Amino acid sequence: MNILSIQSHVAFGHVGNASAVFPLQRLGCEVWPIHTVQFSNHTGYGAWKGRVFDGGMIGELLEGIAERGALPHCDGVLSGYMGGADIGEAILDAVGKVRAANPKARYCCDPVIGDVGRGVFVRPGIPEFMRARAVPAADIITPNQFELEYLAERTTATLADALKAVEIVHLLGPSVILVTSLHTDETPADAIDMLAAGPDGRFRLRTPKLDIAINGAGDAIAALFFFHRLATGSTAEALSRAASSIFGLLTRTVEAGSREILTVAAQDEFVTPSRVFTPEAV
Fold first, then answer.
1. Which of 7, 59, 195, 211 could bridge to 179 as Cys pair (CB 3.0-4.6 Å)?
2. Short-list 161, 164, 218, 159, CA closest to 193
3. pLDDT of residue 47
4. Does residue 118 surpass a pLDDT of 90?
5. What DSSP string describes 158-192?
6. Whether the predicted pLDDT of 33 surpasses 90
7. Is 136 within 8 Å of 129 (Cβ atoms)?
């Protein structure tokens, strides 16, 4: 499998492509990373060095890949945080070129907008771009609960609310939706839910809630879910494999007391998770 991953990148730590690329490679996937930014570290530290690339840079790199005759062999495009609307347009242009070369290729968009408790943390105009342009172009999206509520324009206090929100967002375009970090009235205080919906059904998966707030986990689970959905064609199987791997990765990170997720040290979790969680149909 070949996946074009267009995301941010850091030299130190694991967010964006630095979180998504290696897990995919560990699973045997060939990844073509294009970086939208090159920073020293993620911005959660409060200070960083580096620069943001413009949309023209993305187009230039894609043109070079196309000149190698590679696009017909691209199975999917993955995108995450978008620093500006020009980056977003360049990503959608890349998706269009890949689909023209391989109509079977799929696009997975992690619609990074904000989070519960933090609100919107992307630049002005990006939330609107996600709802109006990126999400309708995607086959698969991986919003968190806050982003699902933004896209559906409704709250998700209950599981029924969340399922209705997913139905609304399906109408925007994506056929498969993974909702991460979902906490409804039915979720126990010591647990966290994920919800996945596709043509083959709707599924909830519950894991113990870990005492951790860390950057990069969302980037990793979007990549893993996309890979397993492409590989198996099963929404439930993709949810089980991705969630189990992320739980193992975060458990190892908590045990080590690390501020960065242990993407390399815990790499076996991507292939053979220590604990496998089974989703239930809802």
1. 195
2. 159
3. 97
4. no
5. SHHHHHHHHHHHHTTS-SEEEEEEE--TTS-TTEE
6. yes
7. no
Report residue 202 as tokens: 């709707």
Token pair 């053979």 in the structure block, residue: 272
Q: Tens of pLDDT along 178-228?
A: 999 999 999 999 999 999 999 999 999 999 999 999 999 999 999 999 999
233 with 198: CB under 8 angstroms? no
Q: Residue 44's closest CA among 15, 79, 19?
A: 15
DSSP-derived 3-state class of residue 67: helix
Instruction: Count the helix, strand and coil residues of the chain and give each as a percent rounded to the nearest 5.
Output: 45, 20, 35
Comparing CA positions, the residue from 163, 108, 153 lying closest to residue 134 is: 108
Res. 85: pLDDT tops 90: no
The single-letter code of the amino acid at 56 is G
Q: What does pTM read for this prediction?
A: 0.97
pLDDT band at 119 (very low <50, low <70, confident <90, very high): confident
199 CB neighbour count, 10 Å cutoff: 9
Beta pairing class for 114-115 and 106-109: unpaired
